[in-house]
Each structure stands twice: as structure tokens, then as C-alpha cells.
Amino acid sequence: MSEYHKPVLLEKSVQALITDPSGIYVDATFGGGGHARHILEQLAPEGRLIAFDRDADARANVPEDERFTLIHNNFRFVHHYVLLDAWQQAIRDFREHTVDGILADLGVSSHQFDTAGRGFSFRFDAPLDMRMNAARDEGARTAATVVNTGTQEELRRIFSLYGELQEADRLARLLVAARDKEPITTTTALNAAIAPALPPFAEHKYLAKVYQALRIEVNAEMRSLEKFLEGAAASLRRGGRLVVITYHSLEDRMVKNFIKAGNVDGMIEKDMYGRSQAPFTAVNRKPILPEEEEIAANTRARSAKLRIAEKV
């Protein structure tokens, strides 16, 4: 498990999540199972944990614990599974189709970054794939499809919106010019095509944003996050906790807005009496950040932010 993915903000996130050791909890991003194992350690014998992961590789990390169930699907469908009649029979004391807490550790796992053939990292020469679940999503768009078939304007939008890159237009023009000569099908070819746009002494940081933008587009991550947040609000009992760890400003802004207003745009809606219709109240007004010791031990924790909310 430790080689697959080192969980970030482990103690603080699980401590915030569990309000009743006998309750039912959801780990929406199972991955290497680090958070899930720690949750199970805190639960009573009658407690339950349901986990989601769309990546087939995550199955290798399933703990041998009768209180645990893994759903091989996108976390955007969390509420669908909470409502399934099958779960009413499989889980004791189902509490009117609600759960006590939901945890999501967003982004890409270390395993996905470090598996060269997945195409998530600019560090390896690999097919330009980036699908979270290549086995199930066979035939779905890959990063190569996006790069080679998207219009210049579509590419500009992707890099500007999802990578927050100021020179998005130049990136799009470089890719269109390169693919006119030869299709861009590997990470090496992509890196070479955009090399003229890479800033001196900051190539890796820039490339990380380019790859982030393509990965978000391929996997429809922002739409999935929005649907997940809506499903979490519908699935939690009153007083239940939503605990989310984010890694970049786009997803953190969406989570912050949803906690504040009940929608990802942050527009607060009120009823006829002037009361906010937001389903959550923030437990921590400012995000919780990793300690320096954790960042030193796990550099991928450096951009993490933990937000906690309670269902009202």
C-alpha cells in the first residue's frame, strides 16, 4: 500500500470524518487504501466503510475486512449506490439511506503518476493516455485524442481553464503546428512540441500544469467533482461530515463554494425568510495544511488543502 500511494493529512482527515465509530462511512477515492485502513482501525465492529475507485488497479489494495466494500466506479455516483435497495439489505441499520461521513482525497495517486504506461507523467516516455480507468473506458478519449483532434480554440480553453496557464494560446498553436507534421501520440512528442513555450528554470512546474489540464479534460474531473459534491450532500445524515483534500485551486474553489453555498459557483440562495439553502456549514473556515514534516516526507503533500463541513 505504501508503495502505491502515501495518504496525505491522514490523521487530521480521519479524525475529522468519524463522529460515531459505529456509523457508516464512505471513502470516495480508495486508491492505495491508506485512508480506508485508518478509518477501519477507528470503527467499531458494527461500523461500515464503502469505498469507490474507478481505477481497476485499486482492487489489489482491498483489505480483508467484512466491514469493507469496494465499488469499482466513479465517485460521482456515490448517491446512486447509497440509494440502492441492495445496500439496504447488505448494511445493517441503514438509517434512512444516509451515511455518517464521506471522505475524498482528490487528484491522482502516486501509483498512477509512477506507472509509466499510464501517461500521467511527463517524466516517462509513454503513450499519451491519461484515462483514470483505461480498462473500463476502452474506446474513450485519451489525451492523444484531445491533442490531435481538438481545435486550436478548444486546446486554448483547456490549458487556460484547467491549467491556468497564461500562454494557453501559444501552447495551442504549437500543438496544432506539430500535429500537422505528425500525430502527437506519446508524452515525449508532447513535451517536444511545446518545448519552445517552457519557461527557463521552471520547465517541470509548467509541464505539470499542462499535464494537469489534459488529465482533467480527459477524465471530466470537474464535472465528476460537482456531481460528487451534490451526491454527498444528498447522502449524508444531518450532522454528518464531508471531508475533502484538494491539490489545486480549481477543485479547492469548487469545494469551498459548495460548502458555502451548496453549488460550485458559490451563489448563495435563500428561502422566503432569508435563510441560506446551503446544505453544509464549514467546520474549518480556513483550509488545514500539511505540517512541514509531512511535506518533507511526502513532497506531493505540499499543495494539499483539507476542508471539513457538516450537514445541516
How would you sum up this structure, described in words?
The chain has 312 residues and is α/β, with parallel strands linked by helices. Helix content is 40%, strand content 13%. It contains 13 helices and seven strands. Strand 1, helix 2 (34-42) and strand 2 (48-52) form a beta-alpha-beta unit. The protein is globular. It starts with 9 loop residues before the first helix and ends with a strand. Mean pLDDT is 87; it is low at 91-95.
End-to-end C-alpha gap: 35 Å
Helical amount: 25-40%
The mean pLDDT is: 87
Number of helices: 13
- Main beta sheet strand tally, sense and closure: 7 strands, mixed
The global form is globular
Poorly predicted residue ranges: 91-95
Spatial extent as radius of gyration: 20 Å
Question: How would you describe the oligomerization state of the chains in this entry?
Answer: single chain
Offer a few descriptive terms.
312 residues, alpha/beta, 40% helix
Please write out the topology:
Elements lengths: L9 H8 L6 E4 L6 H9 L5 E5 L15 E4 L6 H6 L1 H6 L8 E7 L4 H5 L28 H7 L2 H11 L5 H14 L5 H7 L9 H17 L1 H15 E11 L2 H13 L18 E3 L9 H6 L7 E7 L1
Parallel strand pairs: 1-2, 1-4, 2-3, 4-5
Antiparallel strand pairs: 5-7, 6-7
